[in-house]
Design a protein that fits this description.
Blueprint (H helix, E strand, L loop, with lengths): L1 H31 L19 E4 L3 E2 L6 H16 L3 E2 L7 E17 L5 E16 L5 E14 L4 H28 L3
Parallel strand pairs: 1-3, 1-4, 2-4
Antiparallel strand pairs: 4-5, 5-6
Helix pairs in contact: 2-3
Length: about 190
């Protein structure tokens, strides 16, 4: 009888250890992840329940042509890729984004031995307002700045291409900064 009791105890210890080896890491995983969220899934309190955003055409007060279209397109695409707020028509949207490009500067930053400009920095300052369409309340208002550099070429068309690519990259950078500013509020 004692042999049977000892055998039963050893079998119970063996299975008990198996369950513990499975349950303990599972419990640690769930307890340690309390309060943490995956990057790109945060939504501030003022946007809870909001699913759609209307991104109006950017106003261009800088005098530089085509900035309005480039920035509006990039911001809409960024919201589309992000997925937390989906771009939609104003009638279907919960929030509205209005933005103004208030400053565009070309700043020479690189020079040749002959004192000729070889590199420019594009500086852009943009202000935006995020509003709740159902109440008309302003949710956020900020000014953001972005910079990007490009090389000058001896060929005019290549320099123009480089400048256009820099503006496009600046619009992409701004779009990501805008998403961070909207969703990463504390």
């Amino acid at each position: 009888m004692k042999k049977l009791q000892v055998k039963i105890k050893s079998v119970m210890k063996k299975y008990k250890f198996r369950y513990l080896s499975f349950l303990l890491p599972l419990a640690i995983f769930f307890l340690s992840s309390c309060g943490y969220r995956l990057e790109g899934t945060k939504i501030p309190k003022f946007l809870i329940g909001k699913n759609y955003i209307f991104v109006s055409q950017f106003k261009n007060l800088s005098g530089e042509s085509n900035l309005s279209q480039i920035f509006t397109r990039n911001v809409r695409n960024s919201f589309l890729k992000d997925g937390r707020l989906k771009p939609a028509d104003k009638s279907k949207s919960d929030v509205s984004l209005k933005a103004k490009i208030i400053e565009y500067k070309l700043i020479p930053v690189g020079f040749s031995k002959d004192d000729q400009v070889q590199r420019y920095r594009v500086f852009l300052k943009i202000e935006y307002e995020l509003s709740d369409l159902s109440t008309g309340n302003r949710l956020q208002f900020r000014k953001l700045e972005t910079e990007i550099e490009f090389e000058i070429s001896s060929k005019v068309d290549e320099s123009d291409k480089n400048r256009n690519e820099a503006v496009e990259k600046g619009a992409e950078n701004f779009s990501l900064e805008l998403l961070d500013a909207i969703f990463e509020t504390f």
